[in-house]
Specification:
heterodimer, A: alpha+beta, Alpha-Beta Plaits, 3-stranded antiparallel sheet, 6 strands, B: Cytochrome-c3 Hydrogenase, chain B, disordered N terminus, binds iron/sulfur cluster
Chain lengths: 164, 416
Amino acid sequence: MNKKFTKKDLSFWHNLYIPEIVKGLGLTWKAMRGPKQTMEYPEEKFIPTGSYRGRPVLAMEENGEERCVACGLCSRICPALAIEVQAAETEREKERYPVKFEINMLRCIFCGFCEDVCPEEAIVMSDKYELVFDNREDAIFGKDRLLTPVEQLKPRIEFLRKHK
Amino acid sequence: MDQVIDNDLTYSRAVEALKKYAVETDDPLDNEMVLNMGPQHPATHGVLRLLLSLDGETVTNCVPMLGYLHRGYEKMAEDMNYYDYIPHTDRLDYLAPPSNNVAFVLAVEKLLGIEIPRRASYIRMINSELARIASHLVAIGAMVMDAGAMTVFLWCFREREKIQELYDLIMGARFTTSYTRIGGVSGDITDEAQAGILEFLDQFPETLDDLEKLLNANRIFVQRTDGVGVISAEDAIDLGVSGPNLRASGVEHDIRRAEPYLFYNEMDFKIPTYSNGDSLARYWVRMDEMRESIKIIRQAMEMMPFGDIMANSPKKAIPRKVEIYSKMEELINDFMLTNFGAEPPVGEVYHAVENPKGELGFHIVSRGEGHPWKMKIKSPSATNLQALPHLVNGHMISDVVVILGSLDPVMGEADK
Ligand code: SF4
Ligand code: SF4
């Protein structure tokens, strides 16, 4: 721990200021030759780990079907009221599926609560963080843009199973 | 204390309040001037507006006007279940989201009467202390920049960035973490994250030394802060000042010691206290507290046991994910909790924690529903700002920014 000075502790040499400048420049010089602290985005991309909560997506099985059973829990818990689900019946084994599933990415706050409560591991926080729109309509993601093959979501799903 | 000024004055009433102390003469040069500082002023740390009455360059009176960032969080709480409210606590003191999460969740757990697993408590403690370091770094960086030193600001932000990367590993988000859950924490801390924390702790003291080398004996910094904005211990207590600002006035009060929560009673740490009560002492306290936080994190990492991270308490805490997938009972619980929320008994509870800014407390009144009937947030920034008029009187305008920086208010929390 360094010594703490008040006004009256400052000696003549401190008040002269020149030694201080030399010391300060020394530290600056050290920092200048140290490693670079910034990331050259977008040339260099940030690669998130499994713990990262990017934008929520819907998991899609290999046969192209969604896992979601349209129970509506995610839309109930969402603190930002970003999700809209409309359920319908189907002949498939799961009996229910969402005819409409929309997430408004302008509302979403990436809290991960939808993923927390989903009983089917159907909605998962992906590692995607680049979200740009030039109008509001584009920001509402329907099923076409939400469905993502399970393959791509592996790191996150593994993290969920192990650590949640 | 010669005048106590109410915060919710309208503009005209504020000006009147200032004029009461102003000396009016015929000579315009003798008149006192009223100056608006903020709400869009770079040195007011957000949207704080100060009405200053000036005699030349000397401040004779000051009225802080709060409320520009008011989002009605206390009212909103009445309309959403306890679980849903967690992300909103991130946005109170946005420089230390993890410790706000912890504060709110501890209050709710006290109300619900659930015990949380030891591991979860330790993880919460590690996060709160990381948040304290991050918040103090911003406080010092910003204060010193207000006094004219840019390098320190950049170095502080460089270190804070490392902490935010750790947040990313531990909690999944850099800023709005929403990590704690009622009954525990949302995910276990990975080995990678633990290694990251230790690595950070190893190199961080060196940076603190560097910062102190730049600042402690810096003539300009010391002269701009020593004896500037002095508040005595009695006045600080009377005005409700808390946290590092209170300890800089010589009151050794820290909720982590006074009313230990989590496992702070098992930790070995000192409470840095100085008696000067000026801006310089407030800087010292923050510097020393960061060193103490490092100690706490190290101990917590050592003592952290293996085990669950969520309480096994049906109807109150969300079950673990793997169990929801495979077990009927847990699935039903998940549905019930999501739809109706955890329903606490009828009652009232107040729980306060030592946040980086001071005492953050949640007072919840429950009528047995899934959401609070009323909630009051005791925010340290708001109470610390009450001391501002007392601190700036008689100082120059340029000292106002340094004093404000040393008080370290966050408007998201002060305005709620
Ligand atoms: S994503 Fe999950 S929680 Fe949401 S409706 Fe589908 S199954 Fe239910
Ligand atoms: S991440 Fe949070 S805000 Fe976004 S859709 Fe899910 S629950 Fe809603």
